[in-house]
Amino acid sequence: MKRWGIAQLLLTTGLSIALWLVAAIACTCVGSTGIHWPAPGQWSYRLEPVILSSLVGAALAAAGVVYQAILRNPLADPYLLGVSTGASLAGYLWKLQFIATLLGALGLGAAAVSQQLFAFAGALASVAIVLALSSRRGRLEPLTLLLVGVIVNAVNAAIFLLISTISRDLTAVPTFLIGGIQTNLSNQQIASAAVAIAIGWILLMWIAGHLNTAILSEGEAQSLGVRIHRLRWTAMVVASLITASAVAISGPIGFVGLVCPHLARLVVGSDHRRLLPISTALGAALLAIADAASRLMIGSAQTWLPVGVLTALLGGPFFLALLWQNRRRMALAEGLS
Amino acid sequence: MTLLSANQLCFSYGRRPALDQVNITLSAGEVVALIGPNGSGKSTLIKLLLGHLSGSGQIHWNDQPLQRWSRRELAKLVAYLPQSPQTDVDQRVVDVLRLGRAPYLGPFGLESERDLRIVRQVSQTLGLDELLNRGIDELSGGQRQSIFVGRCLAQEPKAMLLDEPNTFLDLAHQMDLFKLLHRLSKEQSMAVLVASHDLNLAAAFADRLVLISQGRIISSGPPDQVLDPKILSDTYQIPIERIDRPGKPPLVFPRFDD
Q1: Domain B2-254 belongs to what topology?
Q2: Which of A162, A174, A235, B219 has the most beta carbons within 10 angstroms of its beta carbon?
Q3: How would you classify the pairing of strands B159-163 and B31-35?
Q4: Which residues in chain A show pLDDT less than 50?
Protein backbone atom coordinates (compact mmCIF):
# COMPACT_ATOMS: atom_id res chain seq x y z
CA MET A 1 0.00 0.00 0.00
CA LYS A 2 1.81 3.13 -1.22
CA ARG A 3 0.86 6.55 0.05
CA TRP A 4 -0.38 8.99 -2.60
CA GLY A 5 1.90 11.88 -1.65
CA ILE A 6 3.72 14.60 -3.56
CA ALA A 7 6.41 12.11 -4.64
CA GLN A 8 3.84 9.70 -6.13
CA LEU A 9 2.02 12.56 -7.83
CA LEU A 10 5.22 13.88 -9.43
CA LEU A 11 6.43 10.38 -10.33
CA THR A 12 3.13 9.45 -12.01
CA THR A 13 2.97 12.77 -13.89
CA GLY A 14 6.65 12.41 -14.91
CA LEU A 15 6.11 8.84 -16.14
CA SER A 16 3.06 9.98 -18.09
CA ILE A 17 5.05 12.74 -19.78
CA ALA A 18 7.89 10.31 -20.52
CA LEU A 19 5.43 7.83 -22.07
CA TRP A 20 4.04 10.55 -24.31
CA LEU A 21 7.52 11.91 -25.20
CA VAL A 22 8.70 8.52 -26.46
CA ALA A 23 5.66 8.24 -28.74
CA ALA A 24 5.89 11.89 -29.82
CA ILE A 25 9.58 11.65 -30.78
CA ALA A 26 8.87 8.46 -32.74
CA CYS A 27 5.99 10.19 -34.52
CA THR A 28 8.16 13.14 -35.63
CA CYS A 29 10.13 10.59 -37.66
CA VAL A 30 7.02 9.72 -39.67
CA GLY A 31 6.20 11.74 -42.73
CA SER A 32 4.37 11.28 -46.00
CA THR A 33 7.68 10.29 -47.59
CA GLY A 34 8.41 7.50 -45.12
CA ILE A 35 10.07 6.95 -41.73
CA HIS A 36 13.32 8.75 -41.10
CA TRP A 37 14.84 11.25 -38.68
CA PRO A 38 13.68 14.72 -39.79
CA ALA A 39 16.15 16.85 -41.72
CA PRO A 40 16.92 20.26 -40.11
CA GLY A 41 14.36 22.08 -42.30
CA GLN A 42 11.62 19.50 -41.63
CA TRP A 43 11.32 19.91 -37.86
CA SER A 44 8.71 22.67 -37.84
CA TYR A 45 6.17 20.94 -40.08
CA ARG A 46 6.86 17.51 -38.54
CA LEU A 47 6.38 18.82 -35.00
CA GLU A 48 3.14 20.70 -35.61
CA PRO A 49 0.84 17.72 -36.29
CA VAL A 50 2.46 15.74 -33.46
CA ILE A 51 1.86 18.57 -30.97
CA LEU A 52 -1.69 19.18 -32.20
CA SER A 53 -2.72 15.51 -32.21
CA SER A 54 -1.16 15.02 -28.75
CA LEU A 55 -3.05 18.01 -27.40
CA VAL A 56 -6.37 16.78 -28.80
CA GLY A 57 -5.77 13.16 -27.72
CA ALA A 58 -4.80 14.24 -24.19
CA ALA A 59 -7.91 16.40 -23.82
CA LEU A 60 -10.32 13.74 -25.12
CA ALA A 61 -8.80 10.97 -22.97
CA ALA A 62 -8.88 13.11 -19.81
CA ALA A 63 -12.49 14.12 -20.52
CA GLY A 64 -13.36 10.43 -21.09
CA VAL A 65 -12.04 9.48 -17.63
CA VAL A 66 -14.13 12.22 -16.04
CA TYR A 67 -17.37 11.51 -17.96
CA GLN A 68 -17.09 7.78 -17.17
CA ALA A 69 -16.69 8.60 -13.45
CA ILE A 70 -19.36 11.25 -12.97
CA LEU A 71 -21.94 9.52 -15.17
CA ARG A 72 -21.05 6.16 -13.58
CA ASN A 73 -21.02 4.72 -17.08
CA PRO A 74 -17.98 2.92 -18.55
CA LEU A 75 -19.32 3.61 -22.07
CA ALA A 76 -19.34 7.40 -21.70
CA ASP A 77 -17.10 9.35 -24.08
CA PRO A 78 -17.11 12.98 -25.29
CA TYR A 79 -18.04 11.81 -28.81
CA LEU A 80 -20.76 9.36 -27.83
CA LEU A 81 -22.36 11.92 -25.50
CA GLY A 82 -22.74 14.43 -28.31
CA VAL A 83 -20.33 16.88 -26.62
CA SER A 84 -17.81 16.76 -29.45
CA THR A 85 -20.28 17.42 -32.27
CA GLY A 86 -21.95 20.18 -30.23
CA ALA A 87 -18.59 21.90 -29.77
CA SER A 88 -17.65 21.30 -33.40
CA LEU A 89 -20.92 22.74 -34.72
CA ALA A 90 -20.62 25.83 -32.52
CA GLY A 91 -16.97 26.23 -33.56
CA TYR A 92 -18.07 26.12 -37.23
CA LEU A 93 -20.90 28.60 -36.64
CA TRP A 94 -18.38 31.05 -35.13
CA LYS A 95 -16.62 31.23 -38.50
CA LEU A 96 -19.78 32.20 -40.39
CA GLN A 97 -20.27 35.77 -41.51
CA PHE A 98 -23.80 36.17 -40.15
CA ILE A 99 -22.73 35.02 -36.68
CA ALA A 100 -19.87 37.56 -36.76
CA THR A 101 -22.41 40.22 -37.79
CA LEU A 102 -24.78 39.11 -35.00
CA LEU A 103 -21.99 39.24 -32.41
CA GLY A 104 -21.01 42.68 -33.69
CA ALA A 105 -24.62 43.88 -33.34
CA LEU A 106 -24.61 42.62 -29.74
CA GLY A 107 -21.45 44.60 -29.10
CA LEU A 108 -19.28 41.47 -28.93
CA GLY A 109 -16.37 41.42 -31.35
CA ALA A 110 -14.69 38.23 -32.52
CA ALA A 111 -11.84 38.98 -30.15
CA ALA A 112 -14.19 39.00 -27.15
CA VAL A 113 -15.90 35.75 -28.08
CA SER A 114 -13.20 33.34 -29.19
CA GLN A 115 -13.82 30.18 -31.15
CA GLN A 116 -13.00 28.13 -28.02
CA LEU A 117 -15.62 29.98 -26.02
CA PHE A 118 -18.19 29.39 -28.74
CA ALA A 119 -17.26 25.70 -28.94
CA PHE A 120 -17.48 25.49 -25.13
CA ALA A 121 -21.03 26.87 -25.22
CA GLY A 122 -21.92 24.29 -27.91
CA ALA A 123 -20.43 21.47 -25.82
CA LEU A 124 -22.33 22.55 -22.70
CA ALA A 125 -25.59 22.93 -24.64
CA SER A 126 -25.23 19.41 -26.05
CA VAL A 127 -24.37 17.82 -22.73
CA ALA A 128 -27.25 19.68 -21.04
CA ILE A 129 -29.70 18.33 -23.64
CA VAL A 130 -28.31 14.79 -23.33
CA LEU A 131 -28.49 14.87 -19.52
CA ALA A 132 -31.96 16.41 -19.43
CA LEU A 133 -33.40 13.82 -21.83
CA SER A 134 -31.72 10.78 -20.32
CA SER A 135 -32.48 11.29 -16.65
CA ARG A 136 -35.60 10.12 -14.92
CA ARG A 137 -36.37 11.28 -11.39
CA GLY A 138 -32.83 12.59 -11.11
CA ARG A 139 -31.21 9.27 -12.12
CA LEU A 140 -29.29 8.82 -15.34
CA GLU A 141 -30.16 5.78 -17.38
CA PRO A 142 -26.97 4.50 -19.07
CA LEU A 143 -28.56 3.08 -22.22
CA THR A 144 -30.86 6.08 -22.73
CA LEU A 145 -27.83 8.33 -22.25
CA LEU A 146 -26.03 6.70 -25.17
CA LEU A 147 -29.13 6.67 -27.38
CA VAL A 148 -29.79 10.36 -26.72
CA GLY A 149 -26.09 11.04 -27.44
CA VAL A 150 -26.43 9.31 -30.82
CA ILE A 151 -29.53 11.40 -31.64
CA VAL A 152 -27.85 14.66 -30.57
CA ASN A 153 -24.83 13.75 -32.74
CA ALA A 154 -27.12 13.11 -35.71
CA VAL A 155 -29.03 16.38 -35.22
CA ASN A 156 -25.78 18.36 -34.85
CA ALA A 157 -24.44 16.76 -38.04
CA ALA A 158 -27.69 17.51 -39.89
CA ILE A 159 -27.64 21.18 -38.82
CA PHE A 160 -24.01 21.43 -39.89
CA LEU A 161 -24.64 19.86 -43.32
CA LEU A 162 -27.69 22.07 -43.86
CA ILE A 163 -25.77 25.27 -43.11
CA SER A 164 -22.67 24.25 -45.05
CA THR A 165 -24.80 23.28 -48.08
CA ILE A 166 -26.75 26.55 -48.01
CA SER A 167 -23.55 28.56 -47.66
CA ARG A 168 -21.91 26.40 -50.38
CA ASP A 169 -18.93 25.65 -48.16
CA LEU A 170 -18.31 21.92 -48.20
CA THR A 171 -14.58 22.05 -47.41
CA ALA A 172 -15.14 21.53 -43.69
CA VAL A 173 -17.48 18.53 -44.14
CA PRO A 174 -14.88 15.70 -43.78
CA THR A 175 -13.40 17.29 -40.64
CA PHE A 176 -16.81 17.78 -39.08
CA LEU A 177 -18.03 14.29 -39.81
CA ILE A 178 -15.01 12.38 -38.61
CA GLY A 179 -12.41 14.81 -37.28
CA GLY A 180 -8.79 15.25 -38.22
CA ILE A 181 -5.63 17.15 -37.39
CA GLN A 182 -5.21 20.22 -39.59
CA THR A 183 -2.08 22.28 -39.81
CA ASN A 184 -3.55 25.54 -41.05
CA LEU A 185 -4.32 26.94 -37.60
CA SER A 186 -3.04 30.24 -36.28
CA ASN A 187 -0.62 30.30 -33.36
CA GLN A 188 -3.27 32.09 -31.31
CA GLN A 189 -5.79 29.28 -31.90
CA ILE A 190 -3.26 26.64 -30.87
CA ALA A 191 -2.06 28.61 -27.83
CA SER A 192 -5.55 29.32 -26.50
CA ALA A 193 -6.53 25.64 -26.87
CA ALA A 194 -3.31 24.53 -25.13
CA VAL A 195 -3.81 26.95 -22.22
CA ALA A 196 -7.47 25.97 -21.75
CA ILE A 197 -6.63 22.24 -21.83
CA ALA A 198 -3.69 22.65 -19.41
CA ILE A 199 -5.72 24.66 -16.89
CA GLY A 200 -8.65 22.26 -17.18
CA TRP A 201 -6.38 19.25 -16.67
CA ILE A 202 -4.82 20.73 -13.51
CA LEU A 203 -8.31 21.43 -12.14
CA LEU A 204 -9.32 17.84 -12.83
CA MET A 205 -6.18 16.53 -11.10
CA TRP A 206 -7.04 18.78 -8.13
CA ILE A 207 -10.36 16.95 -7.66
CA ALA A 208 -9.12 13.51 -8.80
CA GLY A 209 -9.09 12.12 -5.25
CA HIS A 210 -12.75 12.94 -4.77
CA LEU A 211 -13.65 11.65 -8.25
CA ASN A 212 -13.17 8.18 -6.68
CA THR A 213 -16.34 8.81 -4.66
CA ALA A 214 -18.36 9.78 -7.76
CA ILE A 215 -18.98 6.09 -8.47
CA LEU A 216 -20.86 5.76 -5.15
CA SER A 217 -24.46 6.68 -4.44
CA GLU A 218 -25.08 10.34 -3.61
CA GLY A 219 -25.74 9.52 0.04
CA GLU A 220 -22.48 7.59 0.40
CA ALA A 221 -20.44 10.29 -1.33
CA GLN A 222 -21.99 12.99 0.87
CA SER A 223 -21.28 10.92 3.96
CA LEU A 224 -17.64 10.78 2.92
CA GLY A 225 -17.54 14.57 3.07
CA VAL A 226 -17.90 15.20 -0.67
CA ARG A 227 -20.32 17.79 -2.01
CA ILE A 228 -21.22 15.43 -4.78
CA HIS A 229 -23.51 17.71 -6.83
CA ARG A 230 -20.88 20.43 -6.89
CA LEU A 231 -18.18 17.89 -7.73
CA ARG A 232 -20.21 16.42 -10.62
CA TRP A 233 -21.04 19.84 -12.06
CA THR A 234 -17.47 21.12 -11.71
CA ALA A 235 -16.09 18.02 -13.36
CA MET A 236 -18.75 18.15 -16.11
CA VAL A 237 -18.04 21.81 -16.93
CA VAL A 238 -14.24 21.39 -16.92
CA ALA A 239 -14.38 18.18 -19.00
CA SER A 240 -16.67 19.95 -21.49
CA LEU A 241 -14.27 22.92 -21.60
CA ILE A 242 -11.26 20.82 -22.50
CA THR A 243 -13.31 18.76 -24.98
CA ALA A 244 -14.50 21.95 -26.65
CA SER A 245 -10.96 23.36 -26.79
CA ALA A 246 -9.74 20.19 -28.50
CA VAL A 247 -12.67 19.81 -30.87
CA ALA A 248 -12.41 23.46 -31.96
CA ILE A 249 -9.07 22.60 -33.57
CA SER A 250 -9.71 19.04 -34.75
CA GLY A 251 -13.43 18.36 -35.18
CA PRO A 252 -15.06 15.46 -33.36
CA ILE A 253 -12.59 12.58 -33.16
CA GLY A 254 -14.32 9.52 -31.79
CA PHE A 255 -13.41 6.74 -29.37
CA VAL A 256 -10.12 8.19 -27.97
CA GLY A 257 -12.01 9.26 -24.85
CA LEU A 258 -13.54 5.80 -24.57
CA VAL A 259 -10.57 3.54 -25.28
CA CYS A 260 -7.75 5.31 -23.38
CA PRO A 261 -9.36 5.32 -19.90
CA HIS A 262 -10.01 1.59 -20.22
CA LEU A 263 -6.45 0.86 -21.36
CA ALA A 264 -5.12 2.99 -18.48
CA ARG A 265 -7.35 1.10 -16.02
CA LEU A 266 -5.68 -2.15 -17.09
CA VAL A 267 -2.31 -0.65 -16.12
CA VAL A 268 -2.99 1.38 -12.96
CA GLY A 269 -6.41 0.27 -11.68
CA SER A 270 -9.42 2.43 -10.95
CA ASP A 271 -7.91 5.13 -8.68
CA HIS A 272 -8.52 8.40 -10.55
CA ARG A 273 -5.38 10.01 -9.13
CA ARG A 274 -3.31 7.60 -11.25
CA LEU A 275 -5.89 6.95 -13.93
CA LEU A 276 -6.20 10.56 -15.07
CA PRO A 277 -2.50 11.28 -15.85
CA ILE A 278 -1.85 7.85 -17.40
CA SER A 279 -5.00 8.01 -19.53
CA THR A 280 -4.11 11.55 -20.64
CA ALA A 281 -0.64 10.40 -21.73
CA LEU A 282 -2.10 7.37 -23.53
CA GLY A 283 -4.58 9.63 -25.35
CA ALA A 284 -1.81 12.01 -26.43
CA ALA A 285 0.44 9.15 -27.54
CA LEU A 286 -2.26 7.12 -29.31
CA LEU A 287 -3.66 10.02 -31.30
CA ALA A 288 -0.15 11.14 -32.30
CA ILE A 289 0.59 7.58 -33.46
CA ALA A 290 -2.76 7.32 -35.29
CA ASP A 291 -2.13 10.65 -37.01
CA ALA A 292 1.39 9.57 -38.02
CA ALA A 293 -0.05 6.29 -39.35
CA SER A 294 -2.63 8.16 -41.39
CA ARG A 295 0.14 10.31 -42.90
CA LEU A 296 2.15 7.21 -43.71
CA MET A 297 -0.83 5.46 -45.31
CA ILE A 298 -1.50 8.37 -47.61
CA GLY A 299 2.16 8.53 -48.65
CA SER A 300 3.00 11.20 -51.15
CA ALA A 301 -0.51 11.33 -52.66
CA GLN A 302 -1.93 14.88 -52.67
CA THR A 303 -4.76 14.11 -50.30
CA TRP A 304 -5.54 13.91 -46.58
CA LEU A 305 -6.85 11.06 -44.45
CA PRO A 306 -8.59 12.39 -41.32
CA VAL A 307 -7.19 10.65 -38.24
CA GLY A 308 -10.78 10.15 -37.06
CA VAL A 309 -11.10 7.44 -39.73
CA LEU A 310 -8.44 5.34 -37.99
CA THR A 311 -9.72 5.98 -34.47
CA ALA A 312 -13.25 4.99 -35.56
CA LEU A 313 -11.99 1.84 -37.31
CA LEU A 314 -10.08 0.76 -34.20
CA GLY A 315 -12.40 2.20 -31.56
CA GLY A 316 -15.70 0.92 -32.99
CA PRO A 317 -14.95 -2.79 -32.38
CA PHE A 318 -13.48 -1.84 -28.97
CA PHE A 319 -16.76 -0.14 -28.07
CA LEU A 320 -18.76 -3.22 -29.08
CA ALA A 321 -16.47 -5.46 -26.99
CA LEU A 322 -16.88 -3.09 -24.06
CA LEU A 323 -20.67 -3.05 -24.46
CA TRP A 324 -20.61 -6.84 -24.29
CA GLN A 325 -18.37 -6.86 -21.22
CA ASN A 326 -20.48 -4.15 -19.60
CA ARG A 327 -23.45 -6.50 -19.46
CA ARG A 328 -21.36 -8.74 -17.21
CA ARG A 329 -20.25 -5.76 -15.11
CA MET A 330 -23.81 -4.57 -14.65
CA ALA A 331 -24.90 -8.07 -13.63
CA LEU A 332 -22.01 -8.17 -11.14
CA ALA A 333 -22.81 -4.70 -9.80
CA GLU A 334 -26.42 -5.76 -9.30
CA GLY A 335 -25.15 -8.83 -7.51
CA LEU A 336 -22.97 -6.67 -5.26
CA SER A 337 -25.90 -4.49 -4.30
CA MET B 1 -22.23 12.21 26.41
CA THR B 2 -25.09 13.03 24.02
CA LEU B 3 -23.78 13.07 20.49
CA LEU B 4 -27.03 13.47 18.60
CA SER B 5 -30.17 15.21 19.65
CA ALA B 6 -33.08 15.58 17.22
CA ASN B 7 -36.42 17.16 18.08
CA GLN B 8 -39.77 17.54 16.36
CA LEU B 9 -38.58 16.09 13.05
CA CYS B 10 -41.17 16.15 10.28
CA PHE B 11 -40.74 15.18 6.65
CA SER B 12 -43.05 14.49 3.70
CA TYR B 13 -42.52 12.94 0.27
CA GLY B 14 -44.74 15.32 -1.69
CA ARG B 15 -48.04 15.25 0.17
CA ARG B 16 -47.35 11.91 1.83
CA PRO B 17 -46.06 12.42 5.39
CA ALA B 18 -43.10 10.15 6.15
CA LEU B 19 -42.06 11.41 9.60
CA ASP B 20 -44.18 13.20 12.16
CA GLN B 21 -42.87 14.87 15.34
CA VAL B 22 -39.98 12.45 15.83
CA ASN B 23 -37.55 12.95 18.74
CA ILE B 24 -34.41 10.87 19.08
CA THR B 25 -31.08 11.01 20.92
CA LEU B 26 -27.88 9.03 20.58
CA SER B 27 -25.03 8.90 23.09
CA ALA B 28 -21.41 7.77 22.91
CA GLY B 29 -20.96 4.06 23.58
CA GLU B 30 -24.62 3.29 22.94
CA VAL B 31 -26.24 0.99 20.36
CA VAL B 32 -29.75 2.06 19.38
CA ALA B 33 -31.79 -0.09 17.00
CA LEU B 34 -34.55 1.40 14.87
CA ILE B 35 -37.24 -1.20 14.27
CA GLY B 36 -40.55 -1.01 12.46
CA PRO B 37 -42.42 -2.28 9.39
CA ASN B 38 -41.44 -1.52 5.80
CA GLY B 39 -42.17 2.10 4.89
CA SER B 40 -42.38 3.17 8.53
CA GLY B 41 -39.75 5.90 8.09
CA LYS B 42 -36.54 4.28 9.37
CA SER B 43 -34.42 5.06 6.29
CA THR B 44 -35.97 8.51 5.98
CA LEU B 45 -35.07 9.28 9.58
CA ILE B 46 -31.44 8.22 9.03
CA LYS B 47 -31.19 10.34 5.86
CA LEU B 48 -32.69 13.31 7.66
CA LEU B 49 -30.20 12.98 10.53
CA LEU B 50 -27.35 13.03 8.01
CA GLY B 51 -28.74 16.01 6.10
CA HIS B 52 -29.33 13.98 2.93
CA LEU B 53 -32.98 15.07 3.14
CA SER B 54 -34.19 18.31 4.59
CA GLY B 55 -37.38 18.54 6.62
CA SER B 56 -38.46 20.57 9.64
CA GLY B 57 -37.28 20.27 13.24
CA GLN B 58 -33.93 20.61 15.00
CA ILE B 59 -30.97 18.28 14.59
CA HIS B 60 -27.85 18.84 16.67
CA TRP B 61 -24.63 16.87 16.36
CA ASN B 62 -22.26 17.57 19.26
CA ASP B 63 -24.55 20.44 20.31
CA GLN B 64 -24.08 22.17 16.96
CA PRO B 65 -27.00 22.53 14.53
CA LEU B 66 -26.71 20.26 11.49
CA GLN B 67 -26.83 23.26 9.13
CA ARG B 68 -23.60 24.61 10.63
CA TRP B 69 -21.62 21.44 9.93
CA SER B 70 -19.64 21.36 6.69
CA ARG B 71 -19.98 18.08 4.79
CA ARG B 72 -16.31 17.34 5.40
CA GLU B 73 -16.40 17.97 9.16
CA LEU B 74 -19.63 16.00 9.60
CA ALA B 75 -18.02 13.07 7.72
CA LYS B 76 -15.26 13.02 10.35
CA LEU B 77 -17.92 12.71 13.07
CA VAL B 78 -20.57 10.43 11.51
CA ALA B 79 -20.26 7.52 9.07
CA TYR B 80 -23.15 6.08 7.09
CA LEU B 81 -23.69 2.61 5.66
CA PRO B 82 -26.68 2.44 3.30
CA GLN B 83 -28.79 -0.62 2.62
CA SER B 84 -27.03 -1.32 -0.70
CA PRO B 85 -23.53 0.21 -0.71
CA GLN B 86 -22.23 0.82 -4.20
CA THR B 87 -18.82 0.07 -5.55
CA ASP B 88 -16.82 -0.24 -8.73
CA VAL B 89 -16.37 -3.93 -9.51
CA ASP B 90 -12.76 -3.17 -10.54
CA GLN B 91 -11.88 -1.97 -7.03
CA ARG B 92 -9.75 -3.94 -4.61
CA VAL B 93 -10.55 -4.19 -0.90
CA VAL B 94 -7.80 -1.72 -0.04
CA ASP B 95 -9.27 0.84 -2.51
CA VAL B 96 -12.65 0.64 -0.74
CA LEU B 97 -11.05 1.09 2.69
CA ARG B 98 -9.01 4.07 1.45
CA LEU B 99 -12.20 5.76 0.27
CA GLY B 100 -13.05 6.13 3.95
CA ARG B 101 -10.23 8.66 4.22
CA ALA B 102 -11.94 10.96 1.67
CA PRO B 103 -12.84 13.60 4.32
CA TYR B 104 -9.14 13.95 5.19
CA LEU B 105 -7.65 14.15 1.67
CA GLY B 106 -5.77 17.23 0.52
CA PRO B 107 -5.77 18.82 -2.94
CA PHE B 108 -4.80 16.39 -5.73
CA GLY B 109 -6.12 13.66 -3.39
CA LEU B 110 -2.88 13.74 -1.36
CA GLU B 111 -2.76 11.33 1.60
CA SER B 112 -0.84 11.67 4.87
CA GLU B 113 1.09 8.91 6.68
CA ARG B 114 -1.75 8.93 9.19
CA ASP B 115 -4.28 8.07 6.46
CA LEU B 116 -2.47 4.83 5.64
CA ARG B 117 -1.90 4.02 9.32
CA ILE B 118 -5.66 4.27 10.00
CA VAL B 119 -6.47 2.07 7.00
CA ARG B 120 -4.00 -0.56 8.28
CA GLN B 121 -5.50 -0.38 11.79
CA VAL B 122 -9.02 -0.86 10.43
CA SER B 123 -7.86 -3.78 8.32
CA GLN B 124 -6.34 -5.43 11.43
CA THR B 125 -9.39 -4.71 13.61
CA LEU B 126 -11.70 -6.39 11.09
CA GLY B 127 -9.26 -9.17 10.13
CA LEU B 128 -9.09 -8.05 6.51
CA ASP B 129 -5.29 -8.18 6.03
CA GLU B 130 -5.44 -11.29 3.86
CA LEU B 131 -8.11 -9.75 1.61
CA LEU B 132 -6.57 -6.32 0.98
CA ASN B 133 -5.47 -7.00 -2.59
CA ARG B 134 -8.47 -9.10 -3.57
CA GLY B 135 -11.08 -7.70 -5.97
CA ILE B 136 -14.32 -6.67 -4.28
CA ASP B 137 -16.28 -8.84 -6.74
CA GLU B 138 -14.40 -11.96 -5.56
CA LEU B 139 -15.78 -11.77 -2.02
CA SER B 140 -18.83 -13.21 -0.29
CA GLY B 141 -21.70 -11.00 0.88
CA GLY B 142 -20.52 -11.21 4.50
CA GLN B 143 -16.95 -10.26 3.63
CA ARG B 144 -18.16 -7.33 1.53
CA GLN B 145 -20.29 -6.02 4.36
CA SER B 146 -17.25 -6.14 6.69
CA ILE B 147 -15.33 -4.11 4.14
CA PHE B 148 -18.05 -1.47 3.91
CA VAL B 149 -18.08 -1.29 7.72
CA GLY B 150 -14.30 -0.87 7.42
CA ARG B 151 -14.80 2.04 5.01
CA CYS B 152 -16.98 3.68 7.67
CA LEU B 153 -14.39 3.00 10.41
CA ALA B 154 -11.62 4.53 8.28
CA GLN B 155 -13.50 7.82 8.68
CA GLU B 156 -12.64 7.61 12.42
CA PRO B 157 -16.22 8.51 13.26
CA LYS B 158 -17.72 9.00 16.69
CA ALA B 159 -21.08 7.70 15.40
CA MET B 160 -22.21 5.20 12.78
CA LEU B 161 -25.64 5.16 11.15
CA LEU B 162 -26.45 1.89 9.41
CA ASP B 163 -29.53 1.26 7.32
CA GLU B 164 -30.54 -2.41 7.47
CA PRO B 165 -26.95 -3.67 7.14
CA ASN B 166 -27.98 -7.31 7.69
CA THR B 167 -30.52 -7.50 4.83
CA PHE B 168 -28.45 -9.71 2.52
CA LEU B 169 -26.55 -11.66 5.17
CA ASP B 170 -27.03 -15.20 6.43
CA LEU B 171 -27.62 -15.86 10.14
CA ALA B 172 -23.95 -16.30 11.05
CA HIS B 173 -22.88 -13.11 9.26
CA GLN B 174 -25.78 -11.15 10.79
CA MET B 175 -24.58 -12.28 14.20
CA ASP B 176 -20.96 -11.38 13.42
CA LEU B 177 -21.97 -7.91 12.22
CA PHE B 178 -24.04 -7.10 15.29
CA LYS B 179 -21.31 -8.45 17.59
CA LEU B 180 -18.85 -6.16 15.83
CA LEU B 181 -21.11 -3.12 16.19
CA HIS B 182 -21.60 -3.92 19.87
CA ARG B 183 -17.84 -4.33 20.39
CA LEU B 184 -17.09 -1.03 18.63
CA SER B 185 -19.61 0.82 20.75
CA LYS B 186 -18.17 -0.52 24.00
CA GLU B 187 -14.43 -0.52 23.15
CA GLN B 188 -14.28 2.71 21.15
CA SER B 189 -17.26 4.54 22.73
CA MET B 190 -18.86 4.65 19.31
CA ALA B 191 -22.52 5.65 19.06
CA VAL B 192 -24.36 3.26 16.74
CA LEU B 193 -27.82 3.76 15.26
CA VAL B 194 -28.87 0.75 13.22
CA ALA B 195 -32.13 0.12 11.40
CA SER B 196 -33.10 -3.54 11.37
CA HIS B 197 -36.01 -5.82 10.63
CA ASP B 198 -34.68 -8.55 12.91
CA LEU B 199 -36.30 -7.75 16.26
CA ASN B 200 -34.49 -10.47 18.22
CA LEU B 201 -31.05 -9.61 16.87
CA ALA B 202 -31.71 -5.94 17.59
CA ALA B 203 -32.86 -6.78 21.12
CA ALA B 204 -29.81 -8.99 21.74
CA PHE B 205 -27.25 -6.33 20.91
CA ALA B 206 -28.91 -2.92 21.30
CA ASP B 207 -29.06 -0.92 24.51
CA ARG B 208 -32.28 0.74 23.35
CA LEU B 209 -34.92 -0.01 20.75
CA VAL B 210 -36.95 2.65 18.96
CA LEU B 211 -40.14 1.29 17.39
CA ILE B 212 -41.38 3.45 14.54
CA SER B 213 -44.54 3.09 12.50
CA GLN B 214 -46.17 5.37 9.92
CA GLY B 215 -43.58 8.04 10.65
CA ARG B 216 -44.21 8.18 14.41
CA ILE B 217 -42.29 6.74 17.33
CA ILE B 218 -44.57 4.20 18.97
CA SER B 219 -42.28 3.10 21.75
CA SER B 220 -38.69 3.72 22.84
CA GLY B 221 -36.58 2.21 25.61
CA PRO B 222 -34.83 -1.00 26.69
CA PRO B 223 -35.68 -4.14 24.64
CA ASP B 224 -37.67 -5.63 27.50
CA GLN B 225 -40.02 -2.64 27.44
CA VAL B 226 -40.34 -2.08 23.68
CA LEU B 227 -40.88 -5.71 22.68
CA ASP B 228 -44.42 -5.70 24.03
CA PRO B 229 -46.48 -8.31 22.12
CA LYS B 230 -49.61 -6.15 22.04
CA ILE B 231 -47.81 -3.08 20.70
CA LEU B 232 -45.87 -5.19 18.17
CA SER B 233 -49.04 -7.01 17.06
CA ASP B 234 -50.77 -3.66 16.47
CA THR B 235 -47.75 -2.22 14.67
CA TYR B 236 -47.05 -5.18 12.36
CA GLN B 237 -50.74 -6.17 12.02
CA ILE B 238 -50.00 -9.81 12.85
CA PRO B 239 -50.31 -11.74 16.13
CA ILE B 240 -46.94 -11.78 17.91
CA GLU B 241 -45.88 -13.93 20.85
CA ARG B 242 -43.13 -13.31 23.38
CA ILE B 243 -40.91 -15.64 25.39
CA ASP B 244 -39.26 -14.14 28.46
CA ARG B 245 -35.80 -15.39 29.48
CA PRO B 246 -34.32 -14.52 32.87
CA GLY B 247 -31.37 -12.13 32.56
CA LYS B 248 -31.65 -11.99 28.78
CA PRO B 249 -33.71 -9.95 26.32
CA PRO B 250 -37.08 -11.53 25.42
CA LEU B 251 -37.65 -13.35 22.15
CA VAL B 252 -40.60 -12.39 19.94
CA PHE B 253 -41.98 -14.19 16.91
CA PRO B 254 -45.13 -14.26 14.78
CA ARG B 255 -47.74 -16.80 15.80
CA PHE B 256 -47.82 -19.17 12.83
CA ASP B 257 -50.66 -21.45 13.91
CA ASP B 258 -53.48 -18.87 13.60
Answers
A1: Rossmann fold (3.40.50)
A2: A235
A3: unpaired
A4: 112, 336-337
